[in-house]
């Protein structure tokens, strides 16, 4: 995604071609979920950090698509090229976030507001959301549409003025510690073997073995797909009154908001729903969208009715908790 942006953004901007990456489960639920969460923090409150917890559930067995597994293997193989690309490009602008950044936690998290085990997930969602926030830092009112109506321009500005930037990360959550152990061992195998060709050939030839059964070449059965679903909680911490807190020297957040995005199985049901609805918005509302360039889904679709469309097609967005912390 980042290479496409580096190589094609300027040509696309010149020709008026709009390229939107990550229009599947990665990373539309995370993008719209973050924007939905951020807009719950009305002044004088201020958001500081958001942790997204991805929880996959099924009444049968959770089996991932082989494409996800292969992407992880090839991601490790090309990690050096990605780092070189990032070093070669200007640093993206960082948003102004009040207060100190949250402390780095342990590898496995046993205590959180959800009452689940969790661990940090090296997800594209984190990168994509941060890219959206960088764009918002450069363009606080969002990107103007190619031929947007005055009404939409006013709506766009109002929408982005209600979005607050925050430190963002993604974790995989589970009620079972053993599930996280399986993720860890899969990550260790991919990290060890993904850096050389023979190791990659083994990883790709025997995915079920190296992933402890979480991925298989045949993919999930129809029954496994129907029985699966996801929940993605967004746990945000910040200040109930940011000016007063900083004036009194209080660095510890005193407010917590938890929102949730949920929907059906992620790979074979949610991703097609998201992709089709993104395409329909692009086709029906092209004049209101940015003229051209390579952008994230949040940047392009944030002010549109994409969230409403997803809610009408099986996904839900809801506020679970808003409370003051002692």
Automatic annotation (TrEMBL):
Keywords: Membrane, Transmembrane, Transmembrane helix. It comes from the Eukaryota. The keyword Transmembrane helix applies. Coiled coil: none annotated. The chain crosses the membrane at residues 179-198. Residues 93-104 have a biased composition (Pro residues). This is Saccharopine dehydrogenase-like C-terminal domain-containing protein.
